[in-house]
Amino acid sequence: MRTVVKLLKRLRAPFSKKKNKRGDKSRSDTMDFRDIGQREADVKKTPLVSSLDENLRRVKETIGNSYDLSVRYSLAGPEKVPCAFIYIDGLVDSTTKEDMLRVVNIDTFKTGIKELHRGEIYETVKNRLLTGEVREAEDLPALFDAIFLGDTALIFDGTAKAIIFQTRGWETRNIDEPAAEITIRGQREGFVENIRTNTSLIRRRIRTPNLWIENLIIGNLTKTEVAFAYIKGLAGEEVLGELRSRLGRIDTDSILESGYIEEFIRDSSFSPFPTIFRTERPDRVAAALLEGRVAIFTNGTPFVLVLPADFMIFLQAPDDYNEPWPIGSLLRILRLLSFLVAIFLPGVYVSVLNFHQELLPTPLFLTIQSTREGIPFPVVAEIVLMDVTFEILREAGVRLPRAIGTAISIVGALILGDAAIRAGLVSPGVVIIVAFTAIASFTNPVFSMAITGRMLRFIMIFLGAAFGLLGVQLGLLLLLVHLVSLRSFGYPYFAPFGPFIKQDLKDAVIRGFWWQMTRRPKLMGFQEPERQRTGQMPRPPRWDRNSNEDKKGGEGR
Fold first, then answer.
1. Per the confidence metrics, is the pTM higher than 0.70?
2. What is the pLDDT of residues 150-180, one digit of tens each?
3. Rounded to an integer, what distance in angstroms lies between the CA atom of residue 249 and that of residue 158?
4. Scanning 9, 80, 114, 274, which has the fewest C-beta atoms within 10 Å of its C-beta?
5. 518-556: string of b/e by CB count within 10 Å (b at 16+)?
């Protein structure tokens, strides 16, 4: 391969020289046949030198004729030492950048630097003039990492270093309520694509110095900033050590969304169940951190990963905790039953009609059979046909523009369902079952778990068509065995049911009163199990009627 590349260079060399003679410099500058690996290796070997012109030449040679690269030349101090500001236009805050330019250009300070010692201006500017977070870069990789994050590099002639100061100020989306996680009663703030904004939203809710946030850069080309937050003394050190190890092993060119990281670090990659929870709500992340979990923030995405995760966290919503106990518990039970209906109802319907007709009352069975007269397909084909049709309509409604997506999905389902019944392709009972199953799947507050339920539904349909209710029971048994065997960073996925943890049942199917939940999850917050003091059950005041009457009588006398 290298021989071919060298041969191409020799063949194109005369062409590039001819272009150079004509003065077409842009064409000759871009004729570079090095692959990305070679270019990255060459940049890593390039240190900064004391010549300003040479440093700028190397920078421009590496980044090419990029129109957003800005280089501002200046003369520092009364000694007029040449220097240059390097930044990426659109990533920096213009006000901060102009302030730094004015600081370097002022002539009021006298440094006493002679022409032969102009390198000392570097230390003067860094120590006396620049304020805020200032650091140094001694090579091109460190300089590029800084300017691509929105910082500005200041290079002086006569110094083989660059001053890096923060000027980050790109445009971000306003903080608003997440469209996919709407709550009736709760906070209306959601994460955005800026990682600093997202971590600040957590700082506002958990105001303790024990909230630690560690960061790292992942992605050889994207250089994506990733941070994970935890409460020191609550989160398990084993979980933190395993997380650092898994994040450190990621070696890829690009990390564009938190889903990339999720697949690199999750347990049981082939399981349909999500073992890492993701959310756009700061209140849910704050609640998870207070239980001893860890949150992973990725720059460029509003979705934050929470781990370890368990099965019940995917069926819970903020309304469960914000509403009074009876309402929150009822909503959670309703959501769990809907999830089971979305998985098992079509399979049970197929198995009963094919193998267990005696389970239905005779009038109901005769009614269903009468509606199926003339249907050319078996009931399993009807169910699969309508389920697939509804999934296509649902996906089309999501991908279409919001103004027409909902209308297309609803009108399409009504029209296709009615047309299929009139054409004699499906029976009305099948349409009712599929529609009810689809509505039940919408109650799941987490998209990843809802998708899992929709996938498992097809498996249950085929098991019910092949083996009847025995096949559905077999599917349920295999499902439970699989859930019990799953782990999320060592934490049992199906806790508190498998293994059975009695004290954690207060926040499982039925939510207990807030004054009852005095302890954190047993396996999650074991370092500090006590969440609040006991004995906070509200009690109305007890008035001693006789003593009040005695006081009134005494006052009258």
1. yes
2. 888 989 888 888 988 888 877 778 888 888 8
3. 40
4. 114
5. bbbbebbbeeeeeeeeeeeeeeeeeeeeeeeeeeeeeee
**Residue 52 in contact with residue 82, Cβ under 8 Å?**
yes
Name which of 20, 39, 138, 154 is nearest 87 in CA terms: 154
451-460 contact pairs (CB < 8 A, 24+): 452/272, 452/273, 452/274, 453/339, 453/342, 453/343, 454/342, 454/391, 455/272, 456/272, 456/343, 457/342, 457/343, 457/344, 457/346, 457/347, 457/387, 458/384, 458/387, 460/343, 460/344, 460/346, 460/347, 460/348
- Whether the per-residue pLDDT at 382 is higher than 70: the answer is yes
pLDDT tens for each residue of 433-459: 998 998 898 888 898 999 999 999 999
Can you tell me which residue has the tokens 């990492």? 145
DSSP of 3-53: HHHHHHHHHHHHHHHHHHHTT-HHHHHT-----HHHHHHHHHT-B--S-HH
pLDDT of residue 304: 96
Task: Quote the CA–CA distance of 193 and 130 in Å, as a whole number.
Answer: 29
Q: Which stretch of DSSP H or E encloses residue 237? A: helix 237-248
With a CB cutoff of 8 Å and minimum separation 6, the contacts of 372 are 379, 427, 429
More confident residue, 345 or 36: 345
